[in-house]
């Protein structure tokens, strides 16, 4: 398929992107960076706050159904046998019969090290404040108000003064990013994840105010420590929020308030992840399949405008594949006799994600690999276990057979929490575009009062097929089936593209006159496509008609019918595409 020629001179990116921060928040990771950069920072979206020993909990958000019921276990075993027949590998009962003798597994750190083994060195996070010499501390105190405006009050919370004669070490008040996942379980910290399964992680044990405060703290820490943008210069920067389609209107408004009111950006705009992905790869029409860590979403885009009726969300992603990998290895008795818990021990989830990224693939036949498995107990150094992992092509097939994954269940907050009559997304099908007239493609679509939210328990191939067929026009359907685009971290799994093409082709009903499907290769890292698209949209949007200024947001917010009401990024997308194609 020919890509539209949307090349932009490098100097435009350098000049216009130097003061634009692109923020793409996800359930597991946040991608953030300046628009002029090629790749963003990819940081675990979590925070650990210090607690008292009496109130210590490993994680704030473990209010979930982590126990697999008998019915779910039986469905998982049936799904395994279906996948095994497709991949031409033994069934579960056949494996049990063949594995009558235990596999050999040895503790590697009991043997002399080998030269060809290069494992990354693991270190626990230092939870104590770095000691500050008395002389430097005094010098800082002698200069009144100097440097006070370069840091926000939130960041200053974690900086505790060290008394001159005090030898007592002080705990850090909070720790963000990957360091938060590597805190020893014996330390008095509680891990919090503000976003889970594509929504704010609000529950009776994790109130809304605390969720928003944690989001603010994480983003503030990244801006200061990673991007080196001090607080007092923030008003000279603009922010682009690239938001997943799963978020509701109130959640988007809360994030905008954090960006404009708390982080003090001068202006901001919201773009949808699917739309940004189209621009990130230089396309105008595509079916975007975003396989994230905890949510998979499908949405179709035509000529730079999202089709709202085609959006489908699936409650599984890359982390579910990692947990399925652990279940598969334990079933085949290939996992070392160690206590691995991906839900209560964050460092174990890091291990499983690394094994999935390194060894899981989709191909016929038995897939095995010799891997290094680590055990993390208490605050001790991790133990290393060398073992042969098997059936490594089964867990990724859970994308097509969700019962194999058995996603954990997070009880959502009451739906009244999401009731919001100030729609963040303008009805773009009634807008007038420059050049005269409404955009013609919306004439045949019904008008929805709120953005549709669909969460189906179906496989990936069925979701893609259903989404494309909902467009209702055969010419567009044929174009979309040949313009599928896989994004997200799990899209990097080897063999996934041909598997999607084969299964989508078989999922199309026989009465549909469609016989060709194709997944387009991504021009950049699939995990960063949406972030890059957001950067391109921000740089190309010269007029900035839909951008919200800080003063307007704080004073007025959203007013229905006003000229400053936030407009959907569909409008900007169509504007840009009309300009580029003219």
UniProtKB/TrEMBL annotation:
Biased composition (Acidic residues): 139-149
Organism for this UniProt entry: Solanum stoloniferum
Superkingdom of this protein's organism: Eukaryota
Chain segments carrying region Disordered: 133-164
SMART domains: ACTIN
Family statement drawn from the similarity comment of this UniProt entry: Belongs to the actin family. ARP8 subfamily.
Record-given protein name: Actin-related protein 9
Compositional bias of kind Basic and acidic residues: 154-164
């Amino acid at each position: 398929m020919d890509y539209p020629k949307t090349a932009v001179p490098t100097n435009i990116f350098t000049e216009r992107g130097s003061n634009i921060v692109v923020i793409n928040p996800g359930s597991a990771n946040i991608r953030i960076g300046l628009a002029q950069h090629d790749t963003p920072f990819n940081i675990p979206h979590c925070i650990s706050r210090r607690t008292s020993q009496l109130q210590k909990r490993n994680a704030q958000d473990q209010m979930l159904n982590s126990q697999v019921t008998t019915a779910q276990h039986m469905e998982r075993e049936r799904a395994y046998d279906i996948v095994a027949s497709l991949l031409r590998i033994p069934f579960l009962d056949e494996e049990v019969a063949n594995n009558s003798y235990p596999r050999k597994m040895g503790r590697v750190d009991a043997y002399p090290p080998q030269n060809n083994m290069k494992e990354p060195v693991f270190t626990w996070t230092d939870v104590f404040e770095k000691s500050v010499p008395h002389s430097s501390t005094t010098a800082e105190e002698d200069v009144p108000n100097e440097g006070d405006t370069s840091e926000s009050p939130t960041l200053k919370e974690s900086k505790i003064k060290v008394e001159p004669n005090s030898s007592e070490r002080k705990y850090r008040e909070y720790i963000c990013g990957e360091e938060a996942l590597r805190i020893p379980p014996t330390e008095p910290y509680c891990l919090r994840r503000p976003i889970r399964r594509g929504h704010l992680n609000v529950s009776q044990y994790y109130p809304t105010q605390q969720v928003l405060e944690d989001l603010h703290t994480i983003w503030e820490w990244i801006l200061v420590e990673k991007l080196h943008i001090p607080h007092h210069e923030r008003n000279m920067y603009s922010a682009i929020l690239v938001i997943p389609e799963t978020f509701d209107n109130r959640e988007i408004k809360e994030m905008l308030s954090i960006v404009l009111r708390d982080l003090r950006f001068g202006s901001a705009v919201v773009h949808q992840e699917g739309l940004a992905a189209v621009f990130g790869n230089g396309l105008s029409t595509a079916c975007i399949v975003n396989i994230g860590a905890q949510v998979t979403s499908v949405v179709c885009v035509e000529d730079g405008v999202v089709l709202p009726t085609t959006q489908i969300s699936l409650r599984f992603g890359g982390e579910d594949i990692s947990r399925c990998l652990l279940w598969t290895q334990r079933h085949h008795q290939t996992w070392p006799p160690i206590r691995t818990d991906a839900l209560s021990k964050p460092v174990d989830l890091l291990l499983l994600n690394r094994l999935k990224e390194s060894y899981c693939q989709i191909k016929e036949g038995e897939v095995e690999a010799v891997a290094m498995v680590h055990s993390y107990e208490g605050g001790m150094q991790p133990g290393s276990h060398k073992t042969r992992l098997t059936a490594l092509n089964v867990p990724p097939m859970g994308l097509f057979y969700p019962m194999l994954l058995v996603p954990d269940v997070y009880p959502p907050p009451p739906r009244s929490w999401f009731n919001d009559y100030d729609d963040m997304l303008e009805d773009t099908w009634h807008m007038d575009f420059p050049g005269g007239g409404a955009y013609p493609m919306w004439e045949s679509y019904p008008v929805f009062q709120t953005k549709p939210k669909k969460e189906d328990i179906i496989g990936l191939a069925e979701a893609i097929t259903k989404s494309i067929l909902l467009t209702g026009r055969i010419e567009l359907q044929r174009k979309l089936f040949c313009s599928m685009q896989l994004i997200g971290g799990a899209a990097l799994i080897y063999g996934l593209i041909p598997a999607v093409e084969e299964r989508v082709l078989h999922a199309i009903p026989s009465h549909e006159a469609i016989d060709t499907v194709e997944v387009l290769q991504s021009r950049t890292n699939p995990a960063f496509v949406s972030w890059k698209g957001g950067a391109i949209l921000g740089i190309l949007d010269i007029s900035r008609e839909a951008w919200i200024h800080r003063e307007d947001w704080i004073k007025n917010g959203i007013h229905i019918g006003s000229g400053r009401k936030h407009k959907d990024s569909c409008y900007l997308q169509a504007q840009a595409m009309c300009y580029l194609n003219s």
